[in-house]
Amino acid sequence: MAVYVDLVFLFNCLADAAALYITARLSGLPVRRRRILAAALAGGTYGALCALPGLAPAASLLPQMAAAAGLVWLCFGRRRDFLRQLLLFFLLSCTMGGALVAVCRLAEEGDVLSRLDWRVFFLAGGTCFAVLSVVFRGGARHAVAGQLCRWEIGRQGRQARFTALLDTGHTLSDPCTGRPVLTAHWEALEPLWTDREREALSRLEAEGAAAVLSRLGPGSGFRVLPYRAVGVRSGLLLCFRADRARADGRELGEITVALSPGAVSEGGAAALWGGETGKEGGGHAA
Fold first, then answer.
1. Angle of CA points 172, 174, 175, to nearest 5°
2. Whole-prediction pTM value?
3. pLDDT tier at 193 (50, 70, 90 boundaries)?
């Protein structure tokens, strides 16, 4: 059978780009198009190499897992939820690959469905559904309930896009303005930071907001925001004023953004918002 390496490269690039994009959206991470493009090109190159004679062992399970880990690292970097992102990307890639093979077989042989082993089909589908339900159940539940909102904020000419969870229990407000505060994992806003700010913010969990503020220095645009929570009588969050904010296309103007040192949701969201967005009719998380 003739194998067209250029088509293999193209199809792998498109499939990897789509899987990485969906992984970013479901994980609440910013969609960084240049990184997705670079990772997709690397994935397409790997797929083309596997199609060459003599390199078939490179398409076995372990090399594919290693290649998937490399693509996820290239696209998203080393994050705390790396394994969750890797699992999601791998399952999406397998699903897209299986769908592509099925379409090609249907185009070649009209009666392929009659010879399909449906036991294998339902076993594979049920396994993927079970894994996704366990690992990403929080994000799926919030998405179905209409509690996820696409955000875009700007700071000093830079833009960051991410997913936020609408949470009426999140009542943090700015004492200076009285307006609600958006609380986001600092890594989700990575496109906003300079190299110096990124290095300082990476110490947020280990050293705390006050120490990181002193590292950033005066005139950085950052300050600390007091807060109280269950088990925390008095705490401080590092925060800054975003020049502009948009939630699901609705302009919210300038808002205060507090930076969390860790993840703020069990899946599917990189930020929490308790204010108005225009989606309040869909229900919020308590």
1. 115
2. 0.58
3. very high
